[in-house]
Amino acid sequence: MAERRSPESLLWKVVLAAAVLWLLYQSFNFVMVTLIALMIAAAMMPVADLLQRRRVPRLVTVAVLYAVGLGGLVLLVALLVPVVVEQAQQLMARAPAYREQISVWVDRARAAAGTWTAGRRFELPDIGLKDVGPVLRQLGERSLSATRGIFTGTMSALIILFAAAYIVVDRDRLARGLLDFLPPRRRREAARVGAIVMERMGGYVLGQVTVSLCIAVLLSIGLSLLGLDTPILIAVTAGALNFVPFLGSTIGLLLALLVALNKSLLTVLGVLILFGAVQFVEGNILVPYLLERKVALHPLAVLAAMMVGAQVAGLIGVVVSVPI
User: Residue 151, exposed/middle/buried by CB under 10 A (0-12, 13-18, 19+)?
Assistant: First the structure.
């Protein structure tokens, strides 16, 4: 005979669930730190499991991964940041010339088409950092508010690294401790679902980083072959913003077209073909094999999650929204 649940028992469960949700809402910083630590731990977990089967301690694996990651980040900053800064300065210095050249191209196109505005001077609106700044500042403020400032954000970053390392090293004991809170009949299913969640979360993080790096490399090579003035800046911008669907490729394409219009129509055509080819490779090769199989989410669900994450916590929310 099935066990009947009393209304009082159901009411207590509803009250308990509401209390837990309220506590999570009040502890927003803790929730964000925990989620990011889980993402990093999930990305390292497959490597730790593989090397553990080869009798390599999990602590050694985490230490090596952190050392390689920190060394790679330092090398990337040392090699890439000066080039990107220099090319960004070049782009800003040449922006008026690019804007003037685009106006000339549009005037010629209108004159050739014989439109009623052929005799008028066409000028692009003067859009600069003062117009883009508020949008970027809003995202930055939301990201900082999610960690309560720069200092707290730095401390949170250190806590995230330590927490992720602890999760990887002591995974089995943590899993057993969490399962102890559940009824015995629920533990096997909870462990199965938890393993799936961690696998997909880690797959998303690794896949997204790999896709972004591939796009940055492909665009850097292609734009250099086309002879654009700032290929690395455009490629790095497109790759870094690739975490948001369509944003990285759109901004990269606009920057590339802005520079290409100052050269020739053939260069513009080459830029369009290059970005079309990169989008084809991303959509038909990189994303299906590196992301969709791991995350198993519809692209619209991904886009909706990122929009909500951006509204809640800025750039940090965009990063953690899809794994959530």
Answer: exposed
